[in-house]
Backbone:
């Protein structure tokens, strides 16, 4: 009897080892389909990322085309001579002076002057952040718009007949860019380029 019990004791570890080996093999079999599926599961994700990249490129190209068209329109609107206005235009370096004159004019003329200058600056606000994510910082958009419009006004006053430099136009243009940024630029840029990392 003692010999049989010793034989059973020697066989027990072997049996336990067999159970462990069988369990590990079963686990490996269970994991195999999941691992193989991961290799093929990247297909839809890659296709989605590719589609988003194409869409992003199309939107950026459209914004670039829009900026080029806007630059051409801006040049035509602001740098076209007005011979009939020679002698009637005056340089304004005092913020608010022309704006007060606009608001004292009839409503239609006031809307044309104020609204026109706001609309003229708005494309900066929603095109620049789409073209370059760095312009999602509102300060950069406002500063660049102000610099560009200062240059335009300087050229008007120095070289274009019938036009004069007006600081209020620069202020209104920059305000228009700010409005365009707040209404559209920030949202479109976030949708195209994703949220900015902090």
Residues:
């Amino acid at each position: 009897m003692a010999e049989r019990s010793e034989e059973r004791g020697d066989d027990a570890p072997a049996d336990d080892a067999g159970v462990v080996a069988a369990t590990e093999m079963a686990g490996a079999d269970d994991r195999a389909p999941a691992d193989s599926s991961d290799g093929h599961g990247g297909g839809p994700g890659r296709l989605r990322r590719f589609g988003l990249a194409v869409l992003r490129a199309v939107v950026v190209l459209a914004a670039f085309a829009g900026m080029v068209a806007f630059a051409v329109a801006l040049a035509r609107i602001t740098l076209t001579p007005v011979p009939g206005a020679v002698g009637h235009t005056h340089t304004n370096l005092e913020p608010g002076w022309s704006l007060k004159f606009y608001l004292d004019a009839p409503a239609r003329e006031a809307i044309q002057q104020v609204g026109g200058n706001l609309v003229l600056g708005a494309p900066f606000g929603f095109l620049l952040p789409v073209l370059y994510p760095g312009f999602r910082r509102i300060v950069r958009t406002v500063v660049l718009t102000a610099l560009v419009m200062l240059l335009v006004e300087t050229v008007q006053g120095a070289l274009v007949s019938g036009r004069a430099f007006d600081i209020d136009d620069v202020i209104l243009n920059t305000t228009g860019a700010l409005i365009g940024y707040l209404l559209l630029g920030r949202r479109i840029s976030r949708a195209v380029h994703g949220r900015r990392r902090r």
About this structure: The first helix runs from residue 2 to 79.
